[in-house]
Every structure is written in structure tokens, then in C-alpha cells.
Amino acid sequence: MNDFFHIDPRLEELAQRVEEEVSPAFKVLEATAEHNQLKVISAFQQNQVSGSFFYGSTGYGYGDRGRDALDAVYARIFGTEDALVRHNFVSGTHTLAAALFGMLRPGDTLLSLTGGPYDTMEEVIGLRGEGQGSLMEFGVKYQQVELLPDGMPDLAEIERAAAQPGVKVAYIQRSRGYSLRPSYPVELIGRMAAAAKKANPNVIVMVDNCYGEFSEWLEPTQAGADICAGSLIKNPGGGIAQTGGYIAGRKDLVALCANRLTAPGIGKEEGCSLNQSRGMYLGLFFAPTVVCSAIKTAVFAARLFEELGFECYPRWDEPRTDLIQAVKLGTPEGMSAFCGGIQKGSAVDSFVVPEAWDMPGYGDKVIMAAGTFTEGASVELSADGPIREPYAVWMQGGLTYPSGKIGVLLAAQSMLEKGLIKNPTATQR
Ligand SMILES: *Cc1c(COP(=O)(O)O)cnc(C)c1O
């Protein structure tokens, strides 16, 4: 029992039981964190990271050793020839867009191997919105391989579709986004990459790695993907990086992406780091254990809400490949009470009440709970979801496990107080 927050004693008791039950799963997560922590330290050492790298450059940023060494550290961690890690990427969407615009040319086909892409990528591709400046407006063609009814990728269809002439980039989204399909483990990403390359040896396999970094021992680029990208206010920024994104992959491809971020002829050589380097290094150092805390929070939430009678995706005991925990609450009221509770557990902005709103890049109203040190950072405990069927919230983050746990308990408490939980003592076993 805690001295600081009111939690119904029945929920407290349930939480204690849940925590005992999930402890073997926690051990597995801790082993992954330890492996990845050593991987990160070793990459720092191999690149002789020094304290002087943390003081950034200004202006053009020529010869910024801290910036260049961080690229090399990421490349080492992701098992790639090169990387581009920049605070100048404004978000994950921008990073992914720079990569796609960097690699695709008019007439090429972008083939999604994992069904429809994440909401904000629909506008980048040109599937929704005004389409101004989208890939399709520039003459890039788009196709997607639909998922099987169980949400898994269709390997036979991937092979068939990738064989078509003109397919340049085969795109894999690792994490589930705002859907209830599973997130795809690295091993399965490897099989998708192999299927696409069997049909078309020259295809570039690119992975949207958002929320996946450090959740497993290997990254997708160590299992057959040519290039991957993600956001620094998610996993690899460790809650410390204040903005930015990364791309890691084959050297020729990273160069194309850099030409798009900056300009042809300039590529990776310009771009001052201002005062962002230290946070990007320190965040990367913290990332493996922060990811571990976030996934522990997700596992705890899944078991607790399963006991309370809600469907959770993934189930608590399924293997993890990202931070995301979806909880199907079934009603807009449930979403609002859940998000309100998460917000109440935050150290920052705990007094704010989340409300559904129109967000840039999203088609439906979205409700978001996030009391964060970095605005919108979803490696910090946050919960959100579009107000539409199946009225689920997608929860992620938790810089520390105790802060994640109290947020989840307050979400349950808030639903209990609104009469949205039938039986807080759980009778299911
Ligand atoms: C978060 C996310 C993105 C990028 O979102 P931003 O908010 O622009 O950083 C892209 N794809 C997936 C699967 C994501 O989870």
C-alpha cells in the first residue's frame, strides 16, 4: 500500500498478485536490457566516445566529431554500414518521410508488406489528405500486401507482389500502430525480408522501427533489413533526447536519405548539433533500461486489465517486440477515464484532464494522456487512441517501472470510480 495515492484496497491487492505472477516475464525483460546495455557501452567504446563530443557545434557544423561519432555508434548498434542521427528530424514521421523521399524516384513502387501504414504515413504516401507534396504526387506508386485474417503477414503474397517490376522499396512496419494486429518480432521481419528478396534481389527492405528499438536482442537490420528508422522521443532517446530521429542502414542508402534531409552535395557533412549531443548520447546510454521499464509497465497493465475483464493486445505473457500495450475498453467513456487516470499519475501536468481533439496527421479525433518532460514523448508513460471502434487505448512508456505502475493503477482506479469496472477483485482464475 502506498502513502501518496488513493487506490481502492481491492485493486491494491489484485496488483500485488499480478506483480507476483508476472515476475518470471520481468526476468526475461531484464536479461534483454542487460544484453542491450552492454551492446551500447561496447559501441561507445569502439568509437572512443569522449566527453568533448558532448559540446556541440554551431553554424554549418563542419567536422562535428560528436555528431559523426554518434552516427558511427548507432551504426554499430544496428549492425549497419552507416547511420544518420539528427535533432533536425522533427518527428518519427519526418524521419521516415526523409528516408522514403531519399530512396524513391518517380515511377518506382513503394510496396508495404504489412498492410496499411501508420496513420501519419498515409499523408506522406498520399493515401489521405490533400496530397500536396506526397510521394504519390511526385509520381511514386504505392501498393500494399494485405495482412492475413489473423493480422499476420502473407509471406506467399509478399513474394508474388515483390516480384513485380518497379518495386523499389519493400516497407515493413514493426509496431502495430493504432490497430489490434500484432507487432512483428525481428525474426518474422527477417522472414518477410527474405521473401521479398527471394522474389526481387535488388529490393530495398526498409523497416519503420518506431517503438521497437532495444525490445529484443537484435534489431531488424541484423536480420535482413537494409535500412530502418525511428524517433528519438521514443525508445532510442531514452527519455533524455529532446527531439530528433535516426536512420541506420546501408551506406549508399543513408547517403541518399542525408541528401534529402539537407541537400544534394551536402549530405551528412552539414548540420550543427547545437547543444543536443549530450542528451542524444546520454539517452542512448539509458535506452535499454528505459525500454525495459516501459515494457514491464505494459506487461503489468496487460495482466491487471485482463483480470479486470478487458481484452489486451498483446496478452501479458506473449513475447514482446515493442512498447505498445493496447487495451480494448469498448466505450469512449472508458477511454476517457483510463487516460484521465494515467495523467493523474504523472510527475508533470498531473492536474490536466485529457480531452479528445483533432490532431495534425490523424483522420479521427484522438485522446492523449501524457504528462511528460519532453512534449509528446511516448517513451514516457502515455496512453492515446482515436475515438473510433474498437474504442481501445494504446498505452506505452514509463521511464521507470514504479512511475509506470502507479499510472496504470490510477487508470484502473479512475475507471472503478466511474462504474466502468464490474469486479475489481477478479474472479477469473
Ligand atoms: C510513432 C510512430 C511513427 C511516427 O510518429 P511521430 O509521432 O511522427 O514520431 C511512425 N510509425 C509508427 C508505427 C509509430 O508508432
Describe this structure in words.
By secondary structure, this protein is α/β, with parallel strands linked by helices. The chain is 38% helix and 14% strand. The protein has ten helices and 13 strands. The strands form two sheets. The chain has a seven-stranded mixed β-sheet with strand order 1-7-6-5-4-2-3, sandwiched between helices. The protein has a six-stranded antiparallel β-sheet with strand order 8-9-13-12-11-10, covered by helices on one side. A hairpin with a 6-residue loop joins strand 10 and strand 11. Helix 1 packs across helix 2 and helix 9 crosses helix 10. The radius of gyration is 21 Å and the shape is globular. The structure holds pyridoxal-5'-phosphate (PLP). The site of pyridoxal-5'-phosphate (PLP) has 12 residues, from helix 3. Pyridoxal-5'-phosphate (PLP) binds next to helix 3.
Essential attributes:
six-stranded antiparallel sheet, globular, about 40% helix, single chain, 13 strands, about 425 residues, about 15% strand, alpha/beta, binds pyridoxal-5'-phosphate
Instruction: Please indicate the percent range of residues in DSSP E strands (runs of 2 or more).
Output: 5-15%
Summed up, the helix count is 10
Number of strands: 13
Structural class: alpha/beta
Give the ordered list of helices and strands: HHEHEHEHEHEEEHHEEHEEEEH
Q: Outline the biggest β-sheet.
A: 7 strands, mixed
Report the principal-axis shape: globular
> What topology, given as strand order, has the largest sheet?
1-7-6-5-4-2-3
How much is the radius of gyration in Å?
21 Å
Small molecules in complex: pyridoxal-5'-phosphate
Low-confidence stretches: none
Helix content: 25-40%
Distance between the termini: 23 Å
Mean pLDDT: 96
